[in-house]
């Protein structure tokens, strides 16, 4: 993901910081994963919920819908939503082919999230905190 994010004010900086913190939790399955696709995408559901809250609070506080942070949040929502819709509720055991597809979907999201997190860190001035 190329580009630069420059927060326009304290409210956008705060929304960016909150999003950056949420993105620290991985889109990958947790250590207690039960092996189902449904459980594998549960973290994405939680991330989208948190992103929804961040965006709603930002907009309710008077932040403009066209702000860059709003666009970054929407890009994450879109990227995660199609994966969630595809795999949520799927409890069928994974064979090699389906495991590869799920891994590819999650890796694609993780790459996008990493790019957004980097933009936020660089624009917010906390790039030294990025591991």
Features:
single chain; 131 residues; mainly alpha; 5 helices; elongated
Question: How would you characterize the overall build of this protein?
Answer:
Helices cover 66% and strands 0% of the residues. The model has no long low-confidence stretch (mean pLDDT 91). The radius of gyration is 16 Å and the shape is elongated. It is an all-alpha fold. Helix 1 (10-23) packs antiparallel against helix 5.
Radius of gyration: 16 Å
Structural class: mainly alpha
Bin the strand percentage. Answer: under 5%
The biggest sheet, with number of strands, parallel, antiparallel or mixed sense and barrel status, is: none
Helix content: 55-70%
**Spans of at least 5 consecutive residues with low confidence:** none
Question: Which H/E pattern describes the elements?
Answer: HHHHH
Number of extended strands:
0
Average pLDDT over all residues = 91
List the helices and strands and how they pair.
Blueprint: H1 10-23, H2 37-40, H3 42-60, H4 68-87, H5 96-124
């Amino acid at each position: 993901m190329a580009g630069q994010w420059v927060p326009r004010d304290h409210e956008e900086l705060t929304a960016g910081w909150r999003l950056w913190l949420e993105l620290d939790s991985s889109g990958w399955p947790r250590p207690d994963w039960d092996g189902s696709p449904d459980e594998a995408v549960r973290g994405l559901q939680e991330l989208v919920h948190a992103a929804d809250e961040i965006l709603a609070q930002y907009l309710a506080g008077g932040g403009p819908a066209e702000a860059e942070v709003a666009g970054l949040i929407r890009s994450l929502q879109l990227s995660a939503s199609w994966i969630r819709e595809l795999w949520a509720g799927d409890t069928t055991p994974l064979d090699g082919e389906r495991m590869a597809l799920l891994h590819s979907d999650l890796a694609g999201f993780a790459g996008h999230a990493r790019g957004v997190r980097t933009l936020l860190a660089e624009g917010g001035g906390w790039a030294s905190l990025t591991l």
